[in-house]
């Protein structure tokens, strides 16, 4: 019987034949209740955006990533009290996530309900080790760039090019999934803590504000087993909060964030 991961991968690949890559939603169109759209083009065995082959299932005994040269980066504080808890695990990757937050509405004027996110994860590990301050400026910039073009970011001082590290989505059981398929690692995660984003965080293209910062740990027990990852933090969020409900349906809101992975 095929694994859940392979079934999900097949469904995602099939949907790409009919679904376009998501682009930022203009603020005036942010409250339209449209169905969520997958934002990745495919899952590839290399970090190149042009790769076309599908990755294999992660091995059961992955090798931990070799750290870039430099001091280990430190998770940024949110300024909220209490803040996210620390971890005794070892930093493996830092990624920039660019995608959409999805919400459902039961009707006009109703309260929206979050139903998960879909995002492409770009590898920013080297940047985290070399220039944390520059890293933290990226989500507010990349949230305004169409996902298809988000591998390149022009900062005030330089152009940065990012490889795809993997993808973030919610599986058929509603579990947060981080599939770092270029590294053969995957995390099925459950939220353990949430804090408010800083008041000066980017509100995103829709102007609705930044989603909370999160701490998530491997979900145990679960039908599938995480491989090579035990914990992830979502920090430095930009955009993603829901727009008002104007009718029954689904709202998609553009967002970006940093994801720090530990094992």
UniProtKB/TrEMBL annotation:
Keywords: Signal. Residues 1-22 form the signal peptide. Residues 52-69 have a biased composition (Low complexity). Residues 46-86 are annotated as: Disordered. The keyword Signal applies. It comes from the Eukaryota. The keyword Signal applies. PANTHER family: MALATE DEHYDROGENASE, MALATE DEHYDROGENASE (AFU_ORTHOLOGUE AFUA_2G13800). This is Malate dehydrogenase. It comes from Cudoniella acicularis. The lineage of its organism: Eukaryota, Fungi, Dikarya, Ascomycota, Pezizomycotina.
